[in-house]
TrEMBL record:
InterPro entries: GK/Ca_channel_bsu, Guanylate_kin-like_dom, Guanylate_kinase, P-loop_NTPase. This is Guanylate kinase. HAMAP family: Guanylate_kinase (MF_00328). Its EC number is 2.7.4.8. It comes from the Bacteria. CDD domains: GMPK (cd00071). SUPFAM superfamilies: P-loop containing nucleoside triphosphate hydrolases (SSF52540). Keywords: ATP-binding, Cytoplasm, Kinase, Nucleotide-binding, Transferase. One of its GO terms (cellular component) is cytosol. SMART domains: GuKc (SM00072). The lineage of its organism: Bacteria, Pseudomonadati, Lentisphaerota, Lentisphaeria, Lentisphaerales. Pfam families: Guanylate_kin.
Length: 207
């Protein structure tokens, strides 16, 4: 069985990561989504254990203490963290998993890769960018989830996040969600057939 790919995606809030993940998840039932833990309040329509595991600060801290998290960070004033089980189990079973995390979380996964060869060989880092800063602001306002204070916090944090793009293996500029989904799919498909991840067919090289 070939190894799965862990697609670590970051980009500023409002770039369209969740939108594009949803498009791909609907198209490919072999792809899974790493449901993160967060102390943020659920938004209207968000479901516990589907969009996030919504936890109190105490619950989140006991997850940290139990060693359940692959990485965690304080993002826009709340804790967010990736469950080891959401990533490592999937990859071991040959499945690919989309991991939507911020730039700090991406750096922590890179660090974890230094001492985890399996994670390192599964990981692909994709930066997600909006076409412009103005468009980012307009998308974030248009989403209608933020008050003026949290919107400004996210837009301010976006400046540092946008500068981190050179740390990634790939860059997707989200002009249009379907096109961005196609680009992300092309990255995943190419990564799946990398020689380092491909099982040899029986009898290879036949001669
Ligand atoms: N290419 C696009 N053109 C116009 N609007 C878009 C595009 N992609 C996403 N959007 C819209 O922009 C808003 C932000 O998108 P989304 O919530 O997917 O961003 P995100 O990067 O996941 O944000 P966060 O990091 O806060 O979770 C949503 O209202 C979404 O419908
Ligand atoms: N370091 C981590 N960052 C995460 C994780 N899950 C989500 N995120 C990032 O948080 C922001 C804000 O998300 P929102 O849902 O409140 O809009 C976003 O940029 C995500 O990428 C995580 O597990 N670890």
């Amino acid at each position: 069985m070939s190894q799965g790919v862990a697609i670590i995606m970051s980009g500023p809030s409002g770039a369209g990561k969740s939108t594009v993940c949803h498009i791909l998840l609907e198209q490919d039932d072999k792809l899974s989504f790493s449901v993160s833990c967060t102390t943020r309040q659920p938004r209207e329509g968000e479901k516990n254990c589907v969009d996030y595991h919504f936890l109190s600060r105490e619950e989140f801290e006991s997850r940290i203490a139990a060693g359940d998290l692959l990485e965690y960070a304080e993002v826009h004033g709340n804790y967010y963290g990736t469950l080891k089980s959401a990533v490592l189990d999937q990859v071991k079973q040959g499945k690919s998993v989309l991991i939507d995390i911020d730039v700090q979380g991406q750096r922590l996964i890179r660090k974890a890769c230094e001492s985890d060869a399996e994670l390192a060989s599964a990981s692909v880092f994709v930066f997600f960018a909006p076409p412009s800063y103005q468009e980012l602001e307009s998308r974030l306002r248009g989403r209608g989830t933020e008050n003026e204070e949290s919107l400004n916090k996210r837009l301010n944090n976006a400046k540092a996040e946008l500068e981190a793009w050179t740390e990634y293996d790939y860059m997707v500029v989200n002009h249009q969600p379907q096109q961005a989904a196609l680009e992300l799919k092309a990255i995943i498909d190419a990564e799946k057939v990398k020689v380092s991840r491909t099982d040899l067919v029986k009898g290879w090289p036949y001669v």
